[in-house]
Amino acid sequence: MYRPVLPWAEPDLLLPGGECGRGLRVGPRGPGREGPVEVHNCSLLRRSRNRGNDWRWRSAMGSYGLSQGSIAVVVTVVMVVDTVAAAAMAVDVNVGIKVVWVKDLVTVRRLPGPPVPVLLSFNLFFMFLFISPVIGWRPWPNQKLNATDLEFGGSKKYEGSSEFVHLKYHMGPVLTANITVHTIWYGTWQKAQKRIIREFINSISAVNSKPPSVSGWWKTVQQYTDQTGKNISRTVRLGEEKNDRFYSHGKSLTRLSIQSVIKSAVTARTHPLPTNPKSGLYLLLTSDDVYVQDFCGQVCGFHYFTFPSIVGYTLPYAWVGNSAKLCPGVCAYPFAVPNYIPGLKPFKSPNGDAGVDGMISVIGHEIAELATNPLVNAWYAGGDPIFPVEIADLCEGIYGTGGGGSYTGQTMNGGDGATYNMNGIRRRFLVQWVWNHLLNYCTGPNALDQ
């Protein structure tokens, strides 16, 4: 699942994040849904997920959950009254805290305007958790904090090798047969926009692209295998397409109605999309006037599999939205920047369409994870299959050597001033790196130190 990687937090519910000078943005959440998005440039705390009364911090090093027991930490909690209680949380990551457990944290409400100290007039209290180490695995090999643990947060290169990432194979299927991407164009799409996306998908298997290339990027994905040792297919090709230009399910979609859109495409009376669960991927792309549940605030794209009760088949699929009108500064970054950041200029997009160029990296992210974890039971880090940390999640926001946090890493600039990091068949693209489980760090074809 691709989530926003922002250079600074939105000005709502922002609390200091240690010497990073940034903090955690907390948006509306509820039990069992994604939690806050970590937006400071310290690489350890990436994002969290709230499951009932337990917070699971998903970091660059994996996903770590604590029940009632673990390290002692100090958490500042702001309680805000708005018909129901709300909570925001800031963690001083400068002291090396990587996981935090907060009990009975209630649904967060979104506040208008920046979180100034006036907000503390409601309720401010400090919570101390003095607890012994949990039995479950944690991000450090030793059971007690030491000097190395405390220094780790500030010293580790985001894209560098890490012994603390536990990406494992959970014996589920991966896509070893030739992969066919069936596309559903939902809403109004221009021909030029479709051409950009089609060429990116076709470039994954192209053999003669100028290096660094999209096909070189895919070679990292190919290294993943199934339980028989067979690698993921090197062949990714475009399949059939379906146009849903009349918004058959409206301009506001939920996660379940997305599956209904796919059902309509595979059961259409005329030119239905073929159903091939073993090698077919279904890519639903929504135009810039369509809102999807959790879009912009929590995700820019996600993947899952369809339910037979809705679609009639179990099919791996991904959704990616065009954020050009709704939130370009969130999901098309760095080709657009948030309005609340003065003086920061966006990069020039390589294909002249910031919204679609921003989609390209999200599409690559989701296709890579669909290939390695199509049914959410194959390759992922962390102990919870409901909230897996997948091969692209570990490298979100990294486009080149030295990348991490809000810095994209070393990229290239064309003669026209456009920013990119890899070549397609004829076009250029900016695509995030993915995790290399053999080398144990994020890699890409444009790396300067590999």
UniProtKB/TrEMBL annotation:
**Localized where?**
Secreted, Extracellular space, Apoplast
UniProt entry keywords in alphabetical sequence: Apoplast, Membrane, Secreted, Signal, Transmembrane, Transmembrane helix
- Pfam families, sorted: Phi_1 (PF04674)
Q: Which residues cross the membrane?
A: 71-97, 117-137
Q: Name one GO cellular component term.
A: apoplast
Q: Which family does it belong to?
A: Belongs to the EXORDIUM family.
- Name-wise, this protein is Phosphate-induced protein 1
